[in-house]
Write a structure and sequence with these properties.
Largest sheet: 4 strands, antiparallel
Distance between the termini: 31 Å
Helix content: over 70%
Strand content: 5-15%
Number of helices: 9
Radius of gyration: 31 Å
Shape: elongated
Number of strands: 6
Number of domains: 2
Length: 300
C-alpha cells in the first residue's frame, strides 16, 4: 500500500512538474478551455431554454372556436362541446361565454370596446380547445370548423409553427457550435501535452533505459490533461452557479411572458454544470491519451 501511495505521489509530482516547466503553455490551454467551456455551457443553456420555450408554446397552443351568433341555449352549447370532444387529438375544452370573450377583447385591443358590455355585446360564445399533438393542429381545427354551430376557428396558424421551427433551428445551431468548441478544446490540450512530451524526450529515454513501463511514463501526462480540463471547467461552473440565479431573480423567472418562463437555477446547474465538468474532464483525459499514445509510440 505504501509503495502504491509513493508511486501515486510521484506521478502527481511529475505531472505538476510538467505544468510548472511549461507554465505559459499550460495557462494558455487553461484559458482557452475556460472560454471554450463557458461558450459550451452558454450554448447548452440557450439550447435547454429554447427547448423549454418550444415545449411551453406547444402545450399552450389552443384552438379558439367561435360559435354561431344564434347559438345561445345551454343544451346546444353542450351538444357542440360533446362533438368537439369526439374529434381526435382534442385534449381539453374550456367554455368562454360572450362576456368573457368581450373582456379578452378589451384586454387585447383596449378600453374602447368596454362600451359593448352588457346587452350591447355583439360577440358569440366560444370554446378554447387544447390539442394533444400540436403538429396536427391544422387537421383538428379543420374538423372542428366543419361542425354545425361553429362559426370560425383560430389557432395562430403558420406563425406559431414558424416560431417553433425557428426555435428548433436555433437549438440545433447552438448544439452544433458546442460540439465544434469541444473539438477545439480537445485539440488545444492535445497540443499542450504533445509539446510537454517532446520537451522531455531525454527524460523519457532515460526512464525507458532503466526499465520504466509505458503506464508509468504515461500517467503523469494523463493527470496533467485531466487537471487542465478540470481547472478549465471550474470557472464556467462558478460563473453559472452565481451568475444565473442573479439573472433569474432580476427577471422574476420570466422572459417576456409565461410562455418563455426560465428554468429553475437548481435544474440549470445540475443539467449544464455537470455537463461542463464532465466535458472538461473527458476532453482532458482523451486529449492526453491521444497525445501520449501517439508520441510515445513514435519515440520507442
Amino acid at each position: 500500500m505504501k509503495r502504491w501511495l509513493s508511486l501515486l505521489f510521484y506521478e502527481f509530482k511529475y505531472a505538476f512538474l510538467g505544468i510548472r516547466k511549461h507554465l505559459l503553455l499550460t495557462i494558455s490551454a487553461i484559458s482557452c478551455m475556460i472560454v471554450s467551456l463557458f461558450l459550451i455551457g452558454l450554448f447548452l443553456l440557450i439550447g435547454l431554454h429554447v427547448d423549454h420555450f418550444a415545449t411551453n408554446v406547444q402545450h399552450d397552443m389552443s384552438i379558439h372556436v367561435v360559435l354561431d351568433q344564434e347559438v345561445d341555449d345551454q343544451e346546444t352549447i353542450q351538444q357542440i362541446e360533446k362533438e368537439i370532444d369526439s374529434v381526435s387529438n382534442v385534449d381539453s375544452i374550456e367554455f368562454s361565454d360572450k362576456d368573457q370573450e368581450l373582456e379578452l377583447m378589451i384586454q387585447e385591443k383596449g378600453e374602447a370596446f368596454s362600451l359593448y358590455r352588457g346587452e350591447d355585446n355583439p360577440l358569440s360564445h366560444a370554446f378554447f380547445v387544447t390539442v394533444k399533438d400540436s403538429s396536427k393542429i391544422d387537421q383538428t381545427a379543420n374538423k372542428i370548423e366543419e361542425l354545425e354551430g361553429v362559426s370560425s376557428v383560430a389557432y395562430g396558424g403558420s406563425s406559431v409553427r414558424d416560431l417553433i421551427d425557428l426555435m428548433d433551428v436555433a437549438r440545433k445551431v447552438g448544439y452544433a457550435l458546442a460540439v465544434l468548441l469541444l473539438i477545439l478544446s480537445l485539440y488545444l490540450i492535445y497540443n499542450t501535452i504533445k509539446t510537454t512530451i517532446y520537451s522531455r524526450q531525454e527524460e523519457i529515454a532515460i526512464m525507458r533505459q532503466v526499465g520504466a513501463s509505458n503506464a508509468f511514463i504515461r500517467i503523469p501526462f494523463e493527470i496533467q490533461g485531466v487537471l487542465i480540463g478540470g481547472i478549465g471547467a471550474l470557472f464556467p461552473c462558478l460563473l453559472l452557479a452565481f451568475g444565473y440565479p442573479k439573472i433569474y431573480e432580476q427577471m422574476n423567472g420570466v422572459l417576456f411572458s409565461h410562455l418563455f418562463s426560465l428554468i429553475e437555477p437548481t435544474q440549470v446547474f445540475w443539467m449544464v454544470g455537470i455537463c461542463v465538468v464532465i466535458s472538461g474532464l473527458l476532453i482532458g483525459i482523451l486529449a492526453s491519451l491521444l497525445a501520449v499514445g501517439k508520441t510515445l509510440r513514435g519515440n520507442r
